[in-house]
Design brief:
With 323 residues, the chain is an alpha/beta fold. It folds into two domains: 183 residues, 3-Layer(aba) Sandwich (Rossmann fold), CATH 3.40.50; 70 residues, no CATH class. Helix content is 30%, strand content 24%. It is built from ten helices and twelve strands. The protein is globular. It starts with a strand and ends in a 5-residue tail after the last strand. This is Dipeptide ABC transporter ATP-binding protein. One of its GO terms (molecular function) is ATP binding.
Length: 323
């Protein structure tokens, strides 16, 4: 196995809730609540879960686009969360992000050349001129765009092409780790496959590690090596994709996988329908957060937080009755 490039320990990100004219703090939205994981070199870790479970917040907190409330993030042995400004700027070259929405993540007043080249100028790698344009052409060509695209604006491209621009921007600094925050969710199915294949090819050629955030389990199974399942800000299961899809241990994971459509309409599906609504992250249930919707819940689930433990073979589960 390759070495661990990123290690996260008990990461938390709380957003304060204020009320009244004096803006008094009355609580916190616990968007990410004690997540621990690791990613190896050249590996893709898929992160799945319902909308609002904290997937995107996790990715942004790792990169310090949001400042963490607590926890530890180590990238190649370097402390990310406490790194001073100059060290963090150097880390930015190695840790990049592809945003979810290709329409709002690109500046409409900037050309492709400016969008992709901006970070190169900021980090002092290039100055404006012919050499920069030649490198930008090299990067966007690698991402499936043509050289004449560098002088065009975002509104002149399709959704898939805009996402390729976002990927090119992330690749320009030659990073070794990229957070892909639902990079295909806003695209047509045919375009999705092109972007996924592009990310896979780039990983094969450049050895990039990904955190691939998505709610599409089919896409996650195709592109990921390991998969983590989040619920209400916490990681409830983390395993290799084969172990997780073939033998899920957490009741929430089992319910998610039962909802995957089957290609054969004659095949009978055993759907697991969860009752009740997702609790508020501002006031999560005591004990196991999932006990209010779990068909196997016992008294211990209401009182005691389950340990996120390894069942063997790096199959981690947060459930009292995972065995």
């Amino acid at each position: 196995m390759s070495e661990k490039i990123l290690e996260v320990n008990n990461l938390k990100k709380y957003f304060p809730i204020y009320q009244g004219a004096l803006r008094k703090k009355v609580g916190d939205v616990k968007a990410v609540d004690g997540v621990s994981l690791f990613i190896r070199e050249g590996e893709t870790l898929g992160i799945v879960g319902e909308s609002g479970c904290g997937k995107s917040t996790l990715g942004r907190t790792l990169l310090r686009l949001y400042e963490a409330t607590d926890g530890e993030v180590s990238y190649k042995g370097k402390d990310v969360l406490n790194a001073p400004k100059d060290e963090m700027k150097a880390l930015r070259r190695e840790m990049q992000i592809v945003f979810q929405d290709p329409y709002s993540s690109l500046n409409p007043r900037m050309t492709v050349s400016s969008i992709v080249g901006e970070s190169l100028i900021e980090h002092g790698l290039y100055k404006k001129g012919k050499e920069l344009d030649e490198y930008v052409v090299e990067v966007i060509t690698k991402c499936g765009l043509a050289n004449y695209h560098i002088n065009r604006y975002p509104h002149e491209f399709s959704g898939g092409q805009r996402q390729r621009i976002g990927i090119a921007r992330a690749l320009a600094l030659n990073p070794s780790f990229i957070v892909a925050d639902e990079p295909v969710s806003a695209l047509d199915v045919s375009i999705q496959s092109q972007i996924i294949n592009l990310l896979t090819d780039l990983q094969h050629d450049l050895g990039i590690s990904y955190m691939f955030i998505s709610h599409d389990l089919g896409v996650v199974r195709y592109i990921s090596h390991r998969v983590g399942v989040m619920y209400l800000g916490s990681m409830v299961e983390l395993a290799s994709k084969n172990a997780l899809f073939d033998s899920p241990k957490h009741p929430y994971t089992q319910a998610l996988l039962s909802a995957i459509p089957k290609p054969d309409p004659r095949t009978k599906r055993n759907r697991i329908l969860l009752e009740g609504d997702i609790p508020s992250p501002a006031n999560p249930p005591s004990g196991c957060k999932f006990h209010t919707r779990c068909m196997y819940a016992k008294d211990i689930c209401k009182e005691q937080v389950p340990e996120f433990r390894d069942l063997g073979g790096e199959h981690f589960v947060a459930c009292h009755f995972a065995e």
